[in-house]
Specification:
Radius of gyration: 12 Å
Largest sheet: 2 strands, antiparallel
Strand order of the largest sheet: 1-2
Oligomer: single chain
Shape: globular
Number of helices: 4
Distance between the termini: 20 Å
């Protein structure tokens, strides 16, 4: 698993929440494992899965499994 996920849809899938909810949490700085990075042309949402696992007390293996599922699902489409 990548140490930083820069795709809001993938991060939301890993956390099992709607993408819009993930974006709102990142924008409002409600957690320490996601943030918004503003560039010249667009916003990028960054998600730190290892920090999330530590903060939410979830085993990292579960997050790695979900990230793998997302990659498989993405390749099928």
């Amino acid at each position: 698993m990548k140490p930083i996920i820069r795709n809001a849809e993938e991060a939301a899938y890993v956390l099992q929440i709607p993408p819009q909810a993930f974006r709102m949490q990142a924008r409002n700085k409600r957690n320490g494992y996601s943030r918004v990075v503003c560039g010249k042309s667009r916003k990028t949402y960054e998600f730190y899965p290892y920090v999330a696992a530590e903060e939410l007390k979830i085993p990292i293996e579960i997050l790695e499994k979900r990230a793998g599922e997302y990659c498989k699902k993405k390749k099928e489409v």
